[in-house]
Design a protein that fits this description.
It is a single chain. The protein has helices at 49-52, 57-66, 107-113, 131-134, 155-162, 166-169, 175-188, 241-244, 256-272; strands at 6-9, 24-31, 34-47, 73-84, 89-92, 123-125, 150-154, 192-195, 205-209, 218-224, 227-233, 276-279, 287-293, 296-301. Strand 6, helix 4 (131-134) and strand 7 form a beta-alpha-beta unit. The protein is globular and about 50 Å long. It has an 8-stranded mixed beta sheet with strand order 1-2-3-4-5-6-7-8. A 6-stranded mixed beta sheet has the order 9-10-11-12-13-14. Helix content is 24%, strand content 30%. The chain is of the alpha/beta class and 302 residues long.
């Protein structure tokens, strides 16, 4: 059952918005025989226009005011999900590591606060291969950060970033992402297992293809009897416009039209089935529920 407990150690709130320091944040739920905890890799700060520029600006303004958002830059949490069973400690994504943006790369500190070391992690499952989700797989010496883990990724996502032509096809702003993904894949290729839509990469974890943000983006359903939780990664990548207007196109998505269709389907299912949702960029640890009101949805933390 759900335990309403959060503990946060955060950077001082008086710092300028442009400085996003790593934080350690936990949100925990007990889920039958398993335990689900989100741990922080810090926060990511990106220009707000990457999200907002594709949206109808007059209709966007009330949402910006409601959520006290900046028109200049958005700061979002980065919540790595840890699933603990009797025999396994499984991470969903690994954060950004030291090579991406300031404010990220806190996963080792967060694990340490829980009394865990990298060697304790038995499995890593990737939602997709964007920098803030996969670059943290390498340490400062370009060795695998979790040396004893088995790694799992959707076959479509792997094939897309492994393809040597991908770097030539993506927009200029995504070239670094493509190069970085291929570099991490090369380091992982001896410890990687592939899965497809509808597979269980690990027993009890159901993979669901949720494309649009990337071509092979996956979400993961964790079920226990009548309860279920969905790790959505970036298929729903914020708690404001993605919920209020899931049909709006978001510039962070590689295929915005497909991503909008995916968001709508996910939000409808999660709200109708009263599932727990776990979002990589949602606030206060990212675990909550989806509440529907007409054509709008809201994220409510547990």
């Amino acid at each position: 059952m759900i335990i309403k407990r959060r503990s946060f150690l955060k950077a001082a709130s008086c710092l300028p918005l442009s400085v996003a320091l790593p934080s350690i944040a936990y949100t925990k739920i007990d889920f039958g025989a398993t335990k689900i905890t989100t741990i922080s890799d810090g926060s990511i700060t990106l220009p707000a226009g990457l999200t907002f520029d594709t949206m109808p600006q007059l209709e966007l303004e009330p949402i910006i005011n409601e959520f006290s958002l900046s028109r200049n830059q958005l700061v979002r949490e980065c919540n790595v999900t840890l699933l603990e069973t009797e025999n396994r400690k499984i991470l969903f994504d690994v954060g950004a590591g030291v090579y991406f943006l300031d404010g990220m790369g806190a996963i080792l500190d967060s694990l340490s606060e829980k009394g865990l070391v990298p060697e304790d992690i038995t499995d890593v499952i990737f939602t997709h291969a964007h920098p803030d989700h996969i670059w943290g797989v390498l340490d400062d010496f370009d060795d695998l950060l979790f040396p004893d883990a088995m790694y799992h990724i959707g076959r479509t996502e792997w094939d897309y970033w492994w393809d040597p032509e991908t770097v030539n096809r993506v927009d200029q702003g995504r070239v670094e992402t493509a190069v970085g993904a291929k570099t991490r894949f090369e380091a992982l290729q001896d410890q990687i297992e592939f899965f497809d839509d509808g597979d269980e990469p690990i027993p009890g974890i159901l993979a669901l293809m949720t494309p649009g943000h990337t071509p092979g983006h996956m979400s993961f359903e964790i079920a226990n009897g009548s309860q279920s939780a969905l790790v959505v990664g970036d298929a729903i990548n914020d708690h404001h416009v993605a919920f209020k207007r899931p049909n709006w196109l978001n510039g962070l998505d590689q295929n915005p039209e497909e991503a909008a269709q995916t968001r709508q389907k996910l939000l409808n299912r999660i709200s109708n089935e009263d599932m727990v949702i776990i979002g990589f960029h949602f606030p206060e640890g990212g675990i909550g529920r989806v509440v529907q009101s007409g054509k709008e949805y809201s994220f409510v933390n547990i």
